[in-house]
Amino acid sequence: MKSLPTSFLIIFAKFVWKSLWLAMMSQLAPSEKGSYNRPLSQFRHQMNGDNNIYTPEVDRYCLYVGIGCPWAHRTSIVRKLKGLENVIDINIVIPSVNQGGWIMEEVSENCESLRQLYQLSQPNYKGRCTVPVLWDKKTKTIVNNESAEIIVILNNQFNEYATNGDLNLYPDELKSEIDSWNEKIYHHVNNGVYRCGFAQTQEAYEEACRGLFAVLDDIEANLGNNRYLCFDRLTLADIRLFTTLIRFDAVYYSLFKCSLRSIESYPNLSRYVKDIDNLSGVKETYDLKVIQKDYFGNLFPLNPSGIIPL
After folding, report:
1. What share of the chain in percent tops pLDDT 90?
2. pLDDT(250) > 70
3. N or C: which end of the chain has fewer CB within 10 A?
4. Which of these is catalytic: 61, 69, 253, 286?
5. Any catalytic annotation for residue 194?
């Protein structure tokens, strides 16, 4: 039986790996004092007002989404619930660990990668190329790449063409309640799992992890008296939360070290996730095996072996 490597070799290997890890993480997840800071989206056009160049039309717009991405998943669900499948197309992009970005499942707009699409919209674009993207086929430009804004656009602007146009996921009478939940959930849950997984110090990780589970505990208590976050009415706040929760036990619990509790161990949250998952069409918007493959197979700094757990 061979002996373990010498202490010098172990120390040297740890130093080299941690240095490479920090270099990769600085590109993947920019941080301040070890805490992950999500960069702001760059394309924030809206569809409102008569003078807006982007007006609702059938077959003018399409969504670019990645199956693994929870932010893109929000837009797919709202598109499905509103009945916009015949109004707004979807194009799938796939993460490529070797290319360090998203590539097209099928060539679209003569582009083979999402970066090429961004540069088609804005030549010489140098920023991050993320999904979702709401694309205008007429002007060959990105309308918006902020998921929180895209789902509002889908909810509000295409009702005359939607088969379920009467469904309002952002009603005026609940906007303050929805916005309050969104603010808390974005920081501590939606982005909180990433702040856990991409933390570069023990202190930053523990702060994010404790904040995450404190808010999950609050949501669990709220759901003891309500079917959804805002009483018994499904809203955009629920869609935004669901796409994180459906990935939680399969991915974030282990890979992102969100390991104080599983969602399965919360009775109200478990019921809530199953409730939304059973809404018509929602199961068609994701594939848990693809999600696991995308995370475990492509986030090399967090899982260098590429092994996907059972």
Report:
1. 79
2. yes
3. N
4. 69
5. yes
